[in-house]
Design brief:
Length: about 260
């Protein structure tokens, strides 16, 4: 068993109102989410940075490793990813979020597993909003963290920010609203939108032999016509106290139009 659906369905029913009313956008964290045997097996099997050909992002905005091809991943992780895409799990999500007609992504585009070494980071951003292959509207992100004995001093906290778009459609961050530790078997779920600002923007300070590990899955709907949406790539936004840097701002604009250098 990977998930106890009796527990999850009760959780969804009792937490739905709270989740849907959370500001600045709906999000929540759930501890001890997967069954212990499944979570421990996934951690034990999690590939080291050198063991598979990870997708590599290494630029001033993002330093991380990723892999979304199930054929490259070990069985215990594949089992969790497939269960996260199952009908039972979608039913749990629909009850919790109030979003009907959720569709899982068989390609795990941009998801799968993520890993960040010491110095890794992911600047505050909003995610791409249209699935490039399926033309579906992105609605939810789910992240299962697999970091045992993760100390606060290591950083890598998942930050949630409030913000808005100005008259010129430029994104402006105003205030950090939450900071969530990426501890073992904690599941973070949040609605994705044009104001779901999130990331872990400060370089991780974990020991050299540790990494920040997670499993990520994204969910979509087809109910809203994607033709009415302004499709965009991942959009990075500077924090109010970040140094003003014209080169970095130009890099953000370039990244917002597509990936920077990577091995993908």
């Amino acid at each position: 068993m990977i998930f106890n659906y009796e527990k999850l369905n009760n959780l969804a029913t009792h937490e739905a109102s709270k989740y849907q009313g959370t500001e600045p956008y709906p999000y929540s964290q759930f501890d001890n989410f997967a069954e212990p045997e499944a979570a421990n097996a996934a951690l034990a099997a999690f590939p080291s940075p050198e063991s598979i050909s990870f997708y590599k992002y290494d630029n001033p905005l993002e330093k991380k490793l990723g892999m979304d091809r199930l054929s490259a991943l070990p069985g215990p992780i594949v089992s969790i990813l497939q269960e996260l895409n199952s009908a039972q799990f979608l039913n749990f999500l629909e009850t919790l979020t109030g979003i009907e007609g959720l569709i899982s992504d068989p390609y795990y585009r941009g998801g799968g597993i993520h890993q960040s070494q010491r110095g890794g980071k992911l600047d505050i951003h909003i995610d791409f909003n249209i699935h490039p292959k399926l033309n579906l509207h992105r609605r939810l992100n789910g992240i299962l963290y697999l970091n045992k004995d993760w100390e606060d001093a290591y950083g890598g906290f998942f930050d949630i920010w409030d913000g808005h778009q100005d008259a010129n459609n430029k994104h402006i961050l105003s205030k950090k609203m939450a900071s969530i530790a990426p501890i073992f078997n904690r599941f973070v779920l949040f609605n994705t939108s044009e104001r779901s600002y999130h990331g872990f923007p400060d370089p991780i300070q974990c020991p050299e032999d540790r990494t920040r590990k997670s499993i990520a899955v994204y969910y979509y709907t087809a109910a809203e016509s994607t033709g009415s949406l302004n499709a965009h790539s991942t959009t990075f936004i500077g924090r109010p106290d970040d140094p003003k840097d014209t080169e970095l701002e130009a890099l953000r604009e370039k990244r917002n139009r597509g990936r920077l250098s990577s091995n993908i």
